[in-house]
Amino acid sequence: MGATHKGMLMVVSGPSGTGKGTLCDMLLKNDPNMRFSVSVTTRQARDYEREGVHYYFVSDAEYDEMLEKDLLLEHATVHGHRYGTPRKPVEALLDQGFDVLLDIDPQGARMVIEHCPEAVSVFILPPSWKTLRERLYTRNTEDSAEIEKRLRNARGEVETLNCYDYAVVNEEGEEGKRRAYEAIRTIVEAERHATTRYFPVIE
Ligand code: 5GP
User: Fold this and answer.
1) 78 pocket-lining for ligand 1 (C-beta < 6 Å)
2) Does some domain include residue 81?
3) Strand pairing category for 72-78 and 81-86
């Protein structure tokens, strides 16, 4: 029996500090058919970040031009910086049969959910507000005013949960992370068998 597959657009989103980036990295590392959508951003590169791998780092003028030419599938201003998903590479990868992973904030995720009904969306939740606060403070990348702002935003973002297809709680510790990863893997496996993109051919 043969089969044909169409690529799947997968959106992983959730509040800042839920660990969605780590879960996405695990998925990409272990799944050769899953490709990462490299976003554009107007923020400065961090030391370890490489152009075209983590992001495309662009000027405000370049970003404005992309917006104007409708080159972004979705876009949002997140914590004072602008981010967007270039449309063309996503479409090219999907056409080649790859699944494409978008690790984006909840504003951008809503845009994709509205405009691409075939996308599979997953919302990552923290096990508790207390844990989210601890994670943001332990990460030590923002000051306390910024952290408190992110926590307030997180409450609003969680209220949009029912727009997503799936919700996964990223529980504490290595074991919690492993379980969250397994849940996402199960979602990917199930969605790859959806008849909207999987066509088994009986000979
Ligand atoms: P960071 O600057 O720490 O890499 O990312 C900050 C936030 O922006 C994260 O929540 C990340 O998921 C989100 N983000 C990264 N790329 C995009 C994008 O292309 N679009 C949107 N809407 N959010 C993005």
Assistant:
1) yes
2) no
3) antiparallel
Q: Is residue 43 part of a domain?
A: no
- Only one residue has tokens 């090219």, namely 92
Which residue range(s) make up the domain with 27? 2-37+98-201
Could you tell me if residue 80 is inside a domain? no
From the CA of 72, give the closest atom in ligand 1: 19
Q: Is the CB of 121 under 6 A from ligand 1?
A: no
Q: Is the CB of 37 under 6 A from ligand 1?
A: no
> Residue of the nearest CA to atom 2 in ligand 1?
43
The length of the chain is 203
How far does residue 83's CA lie from ligand 1's centre (Å)? 6
Query: How many structural domains is the chain composed of?
Result: 1
Phi, psi (deg, nearest 5) at residue 144: -70, -30
Residue 167 lies in a domain: yes
Query: How many angstroms separate the CA atoms of 82 and 84, rounded?
Result: 7
For every one of its 203 residues, what pLDDT tens digit does the chain have, with 9 covering 90 and above? 676 778 999 999 999 999 999 999 999 999 999 999 999 999 999 999 999 999 999 999 999 999 999 999 999 999 889 999 999 999 999 999 999 999 999 999 999 999 999 999 999 999 999 999 999 999 877 889 989 999 999 999 999 999 999 999 999 999 999 999 999 999 999 999 999 888 888 98
